[in-house]
Amino acid sequence: MPDGTGVDLFTLTNSAGLIAKVASYGTIITELHVPDRTGKMGDVVLGFDNLAQYLKGHPYFGCTVGRVANRIAKGAFTLDGKAYSLAVNNGPNHLHGGIVGFDKVVWKTAILAGAAVKFTHFSRDGDEGYPGNLRVAVLMQLTDANELVINYTAETDKATPVNLTNHSYFNLAGHGDVLGYEMQIAADYYTASDEESIPTGEILPVKGSPLDFTTPQPVGSRFAQIKTKPVGYDNNYVINGGGKGLAFAARVREPGSGRVMELFTTEPGVQLYTANYFDGSLVGKQNQTYLPHAGFCLETQHYPDSVNKSSFPSVILQPGQVYRQTTVHKFSAQ
Predict the structure, then answer these.
(1) Does residue 2 lie in a domain region?
(2) Which of 111, 160, 247, 303 would suit a FRET pair with 256, their CA atoms being 20 to 30 Å apart?
């Protein structure tokens, strides 16, 4: 790092030959190698070849985002009668923890048995405007069931909002766009949002809309029906049965390679983002130019702006409580 702090890169492997590389800077998943239907390994996450490129700035490649993932309207909320102002870094709104969120810090690390690394971070009271001293841990493990498991915990000494997720961009072919990928999302409803991607508070059915992935659909098959500019998905889905234990959230298959990723989470929501704002200005690993829709994100989370929506599941962590979240990415090929 510019101040001389060292950054470690951990390589996790399993008995099937899968490889995950995770950096202590931002807990960034820099590489994730999984087999196709013929057994050929391929790196299925976007990113860069070196730390220097990450430090120049990037669209949250592979990192842990927090304290609060996604958007908080106007960077403001009221908690226990006190108004808080957060850093605004997405137009007038707060996004993914602010200007120096969890994605931009070097985490402490501990190697655990079973292809696992535990990352910890201490976020001080007032960090990016948030109340409370928060202790966060992220445990990443690569299992012999070809699962990348991420477990999050957090504790605070003052009531504070917490909503953590990983922001990996997946490309199951390793290159090209994701428009032909077959995607299924286990959600009958989504949170409606305004032009700034702030939820209106409405929870609407996906049926009859281009957001309906209750059965497998090609990602780009209904782009003509989407009115956003740039076109693509950036929507939070309400997972069927979400928030009540580990639940199936999504399944994505890349027809060419046969690679499949299934997603399970304890969270109530998942944000689908299809890299709509990529414009070719980013050059990533192996000199790949990242064009629009070069990857997809499935960010398991509580709903955006929950801290300002009393009807949404709460993101407030109280002293004495432990925040817990588990997300599982399971890989196969067919």
Answers:
(1) no
(2) 247
Percent of the chain with pLDDT over 90: 98
Do 63 and 47 form a contact (C-beta atoms < 8 A)?
A: no
The reply to whether 236 falls in a domain is: yes
What CA–CA distances, in Å, run from 91 to 163, 195, 304?
21, 12, 15
Is residue 274 within 8 A of residue 232, CB to CB? The reply is yes
β partners of residue 248: 264
For the residues of 196-217, what is the DSSP string, one character each?
TS-EEEEEEE-TTSTT--SS-E
Residue 4 lies in a domain: no
Among 214, 277, 201, smallest CA distance to 240 is for 214
Query: Residue 143: what residue type?
Result: T
The pLDDT score that the predictor gives to residue 96 is 97
The one-letter amino acid at 52: A
What CA–CA distance (Å, rounded) separates 86 from 223? 34
Residue 195, pLDDT above cutoff 90: no
Domain annotation covers residue 1: no
83-101 average pLDDT score: 96
Number of domains in the chain: 1
* Lookup result for tokens 């994605």: 103
Report the predicted TM-score, pTM, of the whole model to 2 decimal places: 0.97
- What are the residue numbers of the active site? 167, 299
pLDDT digits (tens, 9 = 90+) for 257-293: 999 999 999 999 999 999 999 999 999 999 999 999 9
Q: In this predicted model, what pLDDT tens digit does every residue of 34-76 receive, in sequence order? A: 999 999 999 999 999 999 999 999 999 999 999 999 999 999 9
Measured over the CA atoms of residue 86, residue 204, residue 235 and residue 197, the dihedral's sign is negative
Cα(267)–Cα(298) distance, rounded to whole angstroms? 12
Is residue 320 a contact partner of residue 166, using CB atoms and an 8 Å limit?
Answer: no
Concatenated DSSP letters of 299-320: EEESPTTGGG-TTSPP-EEPTT
Give the range of the structural domain holding residue 188, as residue numbers without chain letter. 9-333
What is the domain-level CATH number for residue 144? 2.70.98.10
